Amino acid sequence: MAKPAAMGQQLALSLSLNPGYRFESFYGQGNGLAIRLLQAITQVDGEQQVYLFARPGCGKTHLLQATTQASAQQQLPAAYLPLSTPSLQPEVLQGLEHLQLVCIDDLQMVIGQAAWETALFDLINRLRAQRVPLVLSATKAPQRLGVVLPDLLSRLGWGPVLKLEPIAESEIHAALAERCQQLGLTATDAVINYLLSRVPREPSGLFALLDQLDRACLAAQRRLSIPMIRQHLEQSSAE
Fold it and tell me: What predicted TM-score, i.e. pTM, was given to this entire model?
């Protein structure tokens, strides 16, 4: 039985899900197998465990949150736990075996810490015993993660281990247009092209910039435009 404090923390973390992170809004044509495996899990017809790894910006968080939200839509209790959350303690993993799906993001943030490695080892065993699917993500494959506990390392490979491919250059424009629509921003092709010509074409950085521009538009009560983007970028470079 989960401790009340831990369960409350799990619920709070799951409530931080981005509603725009859905399977249909994920761009990354080289990741069809990963998407199919995760969608099968949400239909209670998939692998017991899936491990995704990639460098930042390839969509690990997007896919884990999409899996969590798709499961919730099927009335399956699920938890999404980003281990990059400050002050998170290993006790948050207690009781997760009573859910129908567990997604753990940013695994690399706690590897090498004895208490966390033991807690993760125990959780994987409990989830396997209860046949609760587990989706894990990290920046590296299990063997390169620096896991100290040998039994944990072996368990991280209990299911498919897949490397996510970065978004294709041809998909970046469409991905930005989709993100603008999610935020309620009216963005013309000219605006998106201007943005792509001024900042590195790296998805996570571009999406973070769009979030900043969205807040700036709301504060100034202005529409997204090339002059506004130029002003924002000049201010940011001057800080």
Answer: 0.79
